[in-house]
Amino acid sequence: MRAALLATLAAVSSVAMTPFAADTDLIRGFTPESSRVERDWEAKFKAIPEPSRMREAMRRLSARPHNVGSPYDKDNAEWLRDQFRSYGWQTEIESFDVLYPTPKERVLEMVAPTRFTADLNEKKIDIDPTSGQSDEQLPPYVAYSHDGDVTGPLVFVNYGIPADYDELERHGISVKGAIVIAKYGGSWRGIKPKVAAEHGAIGCLIYSDPRDDGYAGGDVFPNGPMRPSQGVQRGSVADMPTYAGDPMTPGVGSTRNAKRLPLDQVTTITKIPTLPVSYGNAQPLLAALGGPIVPAAWRGGLPITYRFGPGQARVHLKVESNWNQKPIYDVIARLPGTTEADQWVIRGNHHDAWVNGAEDPISGLVAELEEARALGQLVKQGWKPKRTVIYAAWDGEEPGLLGSTEWVETHQDELAKHAVAYINSDTNGRGFLGIEGSHILENFINGVEKDVQDPESNVSVWKRNQSRTISTGTIEARKDARSRADLRIDALGSGSDYSPFLQHLGIPALNLGYGGEDGGGIYHSVYDDFYWYTHFSDTAFVYGRALAQTAGTAVMRLASADMIPFTFGNLAETARTYVTEVQKLRDTRFDQITEADKAIDEGVYMMISDPHAPTVAPSRKVAPPQFNFAPLLSAVDSLGRSAARYDSAFSRGTVSATSAQMATRAASIRAVNEHLLQAERAMTTTEGLKGRPWYRHLLYAPGFYTGYGVKTMPGVREAIEQGSWSDVDGEITRIAAALNREATLVSQLAGELAR
């Protein structure tokens, strides 16, 4: 595949492809004159970040475990503050007090048909010097699991997502009163206990199957990068699709005197005790299961026969946590702007980790540090951004986006007035640039991508991504990559610190990071450390440098553009694809339910033969009626027309303008920029999504049953997926209204630019 990709890259690069040729002078949002100045500063900036400095910063930051509440977490925050200050930034630490449970007691044992007691700890590996810091490491657990002491039959539920329970139902298997065991993957980990509890389970185990995250992918650590048999993925299982941040202070910052919910009223804690385990501990449990053999798609990589259960296997699970409040430390650094200082460009990466966290998050944080150092040097050389630049190192991301969310909620009135955009990174590795974000930034980030060189192929990272898509993408994706001016970016779900900015406040956001050529299996384990990263990931830190160049260039352009470089044609086109998708989803659900009911009529389902197993018969579902998608189609058309007018007026206003002309139009340009701040906000609503009002964006949200995975047009899409037929037309109306608000704003901006 690699050889084919390089061949395609060479072929594509050798062809003059006019639609993709970046203008060597003009940058969107800049005049020809200011573009030349900007490119000069960007060239100086890109030459500054040093891989060797990133390596040493990672060594320092990941030297000890630095989870929330640990001494080294605070120590790192203070060190980061001092680094930013040494670069010339105005820097402070903002602290919040958050609910952060830590493990008090964990027990997992099989009590029948034989006894087995799980060793719930990860082992020291001698060659890896930090893997043995057991006096400081949090043992494997998941935060915000309900306390409980339960014993029951064990049932295997594959990935534990709703579709898996449909399969169980078809086989007549119930999990009511049982403990379920689910594989990591398929959805975010917090979905697994959530869905299990909805189906009556009393406990949940989550393990990393080696087919997905272990020896099936290569040699295991320390001989290779993959997860060893004793490796465990920690994490949060809080119901973040309901709201992010401190579970006790939804919607408000968790400052010292904040009003907090009583613990028994917090809705985002799991309903059942939950524990993560290694595949070494999972194997004897799974091997003891009875019942039918699972479908081929459910089978993992362990040398056992995978069965549904329950059979004779019974498991005892006990989870108890210390439910304490802990301080978190957000490091906030500022470079004041000049002419538009009240507009803020914000950049962030978190600094806390489950253990040592070299890959997650330090690989992204060291790139951000080098950006900050480089920008500080530019200021000393005379660079003056028009807009204020804010760099943040967030704390408490791992348990539930705590640091970013509490900061956003505390400063939400200011951010609503001043924030231009938020640029996030998290982990970083070797490979291709991954981009997700707001589609009003799609054209902008494509421009940045074209102006950063990939350190391995020596072409732009844009060209490398285009070549990969042409080599390995779907037919439609290949067609787009050859003919569309911009490569498509994915929408944002959740899982990192962009969520409160975009989905709560409607601030345009991007998430950036390199990867795809450094697969590994140490995520959230004690083996995510300096030794692993420097042997198996971006070992020379050249992609750390590329990330610094990419995100830093994006910050510079947003901070210095004469006019904020949002575009709306890409948004309109993408929104149209979402409408097509939800229309097809309705038809797919109709066919699925009709076929399922036909199978029930014909008695084509299996009942498990084990006399000790609980059984259920498949239930009938009501097929969806026809829905009125006309308001959505009309709104998308309106937005497309407004976007075309705006882009035409925008180009006329900057392509031929001189600095003197721009100066005479300063008041008008400032008014346009101020109105542009509302462009993403227009697609939010104060009422938020049904059942989870913290999420206010009507176009992008984490899925209620996917967590990290995005649901676009979530009100309509999830109403159809969940069979809430009476909600669909109302959600169509709400999303159409948001798109019409956007179209009206864009049309007004086009008129202002034309004048």
Model description:
The protein has 755 residues and is of the alpha/beta class. The protein has a domain at 569-754: Transcription Elongation Factor S-II, Chain A (Up-down Bundle). Helices cover 40% and strands 16% of the residues. It has 24 helices and 16 strands. The chain has helices spanning 2-13, 32-46, 51-61, 71-86, 162-170, 191-198, 210-213, 279-287, 358-381, 397-400, 402-410, 412-418, 442-450, 461-472, 475-483, 499-505, 530-536, 542-560, 569-601, 630-654, 659-664, 666-676, 714-721, 725-754, and strands spanning 90-112, 116-117, 142-143, 148-156, 179-183, 203-207, 235-236, 274-277, 314-335, 340-350, 387-394, 419-425, 431-437, 509-516, 700-702, 710-712. The strands form 3 sheets. Strands 1, 2, 4, 5, 6, 8, 9, 10, 11, 12, 13 and 14 form a 12-stranded mixed beta sheet that branches. Helix 6 (191-198) links the parallel strand 5 and strand 6. It is globular, with a radius of gyration of 26 Å. The model is unreliable at 1-23 and 605-615 (pLDDT under 50).
Strand and helix map with partners:
Layout (H helix, E strand, L loop, with lengths): L1 H12 L18 H15 L4 H11 L9 H16 L3 E23 L3 E2 L24 E2 L4 E9 L5 H9 L8 E5 L7 H8 L4 E5 L2 H4 L21 E2 L37 E4 L1 H9 L26 E22 L4 E11 L7 H24 L5 E8 L2 H4 L1 H9 L1 H7 E7 L5 E7 L4 H9 L10 H12 L2 H9 L15 H7 L3 E8 L13 H7 L5 H19 L8 H33 L28 H25 L4 H6 L1 H11 L23 E3 L7 E3 L1 H8 L3 H30 L1
Parallel strand pairs: 3-7, 4-5, 5-6, 6-8, 10-11, 10-12, 12-14
Antiparallel strand pairs: 1-2, 1-9, 4-9, 9-11, 13-14, 15-16
Helix pairs in contact: 1-14, 2-9, 2-18, 3-9, 9-18, 11-16, 14-15, 19-20, 19-23, 20-24, 22-24, 23-24
